[in-house]
Amino acid sequence: MNSRVEFGDFQTPDELCQQVCGVIAHSGLSPASIVEPTCGKGSFLRASVQAFPDCRSILGFEVNPVYADEAVDGVSVTQADFFATNWADVLGNLPEPVLGIGNPPWVTNSAIGSLNGSNLPEKSNFLNMTGMDAITGKSNFDISEWMVFHLLETLSERQAMLAMLCKTTVARKVLRRAWKSGLQIGEVSVRLIDALNHFGAAVDACLLVCDLRKATS
Question: Average pLDDT over the chain, rounded to whole?
Answer without folding.
Answer: 83
